[in-house]
Amino acid sequence: MAYSVLSDGTTKAKATAAADRARRDPMRWVVLAILILLLAFTLFPFFLALLNAVKASAEYAVGGPLSIPRSIDLAALEKFWTVSDFGRKLLNSVVISLAVSVLGVLISLFNAYAIGVGQVPGSRVILVVFLLGIMVPQESIIYPLYYMAKASGLYDTQLSVIIIFAVLQSAFGTYLLSTVLRTFPKEILEAAEMDGSTHWKTLWFVIVPMLRPTLMVLGTFFFIWTWNEFLIPLVMLVSNNNQTVSVAMGLTRGQNMSDPVLQASAAFLGIIPTVIFFLIFQRTLTRGIAAGAVK
Amino acid sequence: MAISSQRSSDGSRSYSLYLIPGAIGFILIVLIPQLANLGLSFTAWKGVGTPRPVGLQNYHRLLTDDQFWGSMYHTLLFIVSMTVIPVCIGLVLAALLFDYVRDQFGEWVSSFFRAGFYLPQILPVTVAGVLWGWILNPVGVINITLKAIGLDNLAQNWIGDATYALAAVSLVIVWIQVGYCLVVFMAGLSRIDPSLYEAAELDGANWWSRLVTITIPLLAPEIFVVVLTTLIAALKVFAPIFVITAGGPDNSTLVPSYLTYYHFFTTQRVGYAAAIAVVQTTLTIALAVIFLRFQSQQEAKE
């Protein structure tokens, strides 16, 4: 980004310097070749899944996993889609992840408003306690949650998973938004107060519009994290109709071992949504993960 | 004076109303379950009826449980594949992409590589598990390929043989983790002044010495954060084990999280499972505290 902004003399000087260096450095092609090899190794499993998901079983039996399919055969993809009721799983994942991102962002926003703007007493301690909540292993809360869900009738409902993840992930959201809100321009808040705005109105009409990009990034994160979660949905969502893509994938282990094309299809269908998110949110994700790691 | 102080205490009170949803959620979903788990770790319980208090018996049993110690030992090995190797690969790749590839081939090429290496990181772990299970199983891609090129005796039961299973799972974990390290390190590098590199280059420093003398020292905060977050993640690794090996064969890939899950939901030794979870939580909190301390030190420095 910043790179393209620079169009003055220094960039030109830098560009010529770089070009000079490029000319006298034959190593560059070796380095590039090594990087391409490494990238090929990284992406090869994805490529293999694609290659074999659209292969006829008979062709796999003859040519093995590395042969290029002579024709596109979607039979295995269709079979896995039907057998696993994949459409339903996709819908479940979308509903749960979307609900968690909205609810999670809302809880984070409220918490951060009280901590970052309101500076309620003990803010720092509250923040640390919240944060420990997300750092501890899920194993240490899973059994009581399982028991509570059974007792309250929420067991095997998507609502149980939505509530749990909205709360767990809001720990990170609270942390991130509090640091943002702590540096929110005081003059704007004071001006709003002078105009007779209540805390509630200031939050919705002053702060939320200004934070919209950050809130969207946070929502994206919650969506993808929830999509990828495994242990808690595995325990909570026992019936086939409620399961997410991630759980359905976790449970296919060994089931289709005898049919490699079907397995490739399963992997391929699991990969597709991720690749779509990735293409849409690449910038958001790479920038956000760094922001999350180093404040 | 009186008016303004009353106003501010009113203000602070009404701000604290906004903490109510978050606090209720935290108490119900994190605090109570956490305390309940701690309580359960001092009982014997099958999940039905009333838990029977047994004092420290579960913890005592832990000390002599080979499965538990085995799982802790595997955690140490997974720290290598989750933290040590990905951090090293991530550092070299990040420095290469930032300090060399970007100069030589342009911003676009460097971003392309970063995106490519990052892709496995956002795949659901269970999908990664299905994918690699398909590649590593006895009639999987690797063995078929080895046989096709005449290397029949190199073909192994990668995930079904205790000798290779841990290494096979480690490979998958490295594959997943490199992208995370790379992306954080590259973001860190973007705040380093490029003129430092240029000056070093003019002084005749080669790429390796720039990595050692500039990149690594200046990336210290990012390295610390990545090391701690991946250490914490290594302590609770679960899904890849569940999907690829289920802890087997012969417990050779067993980890504490899987052992806990197994005792909670298969053997119904709830109290014992709770005790393992408490040990895990304690270790994680210790690491988290170090992490927070470090961050507030950094803030103080700024």
Low-confidence stretches of chain A: 1-10
Low-confidence stretches of chain B: 1-9
State the separation between the terminal residues of chain B, measured CA to CA. 34 Å
The description of the largest β-sheet of chain B is:
2 strands, antiparallel
Shape of chain B: globular
* Average pLDDT reading of chain A: 85
Shape of chain A: globular
Largest interface (CB within 8 Å) is between: A-B, 103 and 103 residues
Instruction: Sketch the major β-sheet of chain A.
Output: none
Structural class of chain A: mainly alpha
Oligomer: heterodimer
SSE string of chain B: HHEEHHHHHHHHHHHH
Kindly describe this structure.
The complex is a heterodimer of chains A (295) and B (302). Chain A contains 14 helices and no strands. By secondary structure, chain A is mainly α. Chain B is mostly helical and 302 residues long. Chain B has helices at residues 2-16, 20-40, 57-63, 66-105, 107-122, 125-136, 141-148, 162-189, 194-202, 207-218, 220-235, 239-244, 256-265, 270-301, and strands at 43-44, 52-53. Chain B has a two-stranded antiparallel sheet. In chain B, a hairpin with a 7-residue loop joins strand 1 and strand 2 (52-53). In chain B, helix 4 packs antiparallel against helix 5 (107-122) and helix 11 (220-235) runs antiparallel to helix 14. At the A-B interface, helix 1, helix 2, helix 3, helix 6 and helix 7 of A face helix 1, helix 2, helix 4, helix 5 and helix 6 of B.
SSE map:
The complex is a heterodimer of chains A (295) and B (302).
Chain A: H1 2-5, H2 9-23, H3 27-53, H4 57-63, H5 75-83, H6 86-117, H7 123-135, H8 139-152, H9 158-182, H10 186-194, H11 199-228, H12 231-236, H13 245-250, H14 260-293
Helix pairs in contact in A: 3-14, 5-14, 6-9, 6-11, 7-9, 9-11, 11-14
Chain B: H1 2-16, H2 20-40, E1 43-44, E2 52-53, H3 57-63, H4 66-105, H5 107-122, H6 125-136, H7 141-148, H8 162-189, H9 194-202, H10 207-218, H11 220-235, H12 239-244, H13 256-265, H14 270-301
Antiparallel strand pairs in B: 1-2
